[in-house]
Amino acid sequence: MPNPVVHFEVLGKDADALQAFYGKVFDWELSPVMPTYAMVTKQADGIAGGVGSTPDGSEGHVTFYVQVDDLAAALEQIEAAGGRTIQPPMDVPDGPSIALFADPEGHVVGLVK
Fold first, then answer.
1. CATH entry, 7-59, from 3.40.50.2300, 3.10.180.10, 3.30.1330.30, 1.10.3720.10
2. What is this structure's pTM?
3. pLDDT tens across 23-40, in order?
4. In angstroms, rounded to a whole number, what is the distance separating the alpha carbons of residues 79 and 40?
5. Which residue stretches of the chain have pLDDT < 70?
6. Three-state secondary structure string covering 20-45
7. How many helices (H) and strands (E) does the chain have?
8. Alpha-carbon distance 99 to 92, whole Å?
9. Residue ranges of the alpha helices (H) in 12-113?
């Protein structure tokens, strides 16, 4: 697969409750990286992820991230196909570069480089 899904996020209003829930029901090991965000340790048969609170306190959502070589080029292709940019490319502190788009039905998907 040329552009694999490499990361997921589960975000909501109560990071502590979400982290406790997913840690308990799926036996996920979560490591805090920010006060309201923890990384899910990648397992042999899975992908890494994160569980935390939304930055603006809004309703929660689940996002998956697709790995691409060029965020701007991917967003151009997405827009030409009927999608729209939600978050232009940005650098995550001490992490990768990401962007968000909405597909033609409004589902938000992430890109990561």
1. 3.10.180.10
2. 0.83
3. 998 889 999 998 999 999
4. 31
5. 1
6. HHHHHHHCCCEEEEECCEEEECCCCC
7. 2, 8
8. 10
9. 15-26, 71-80
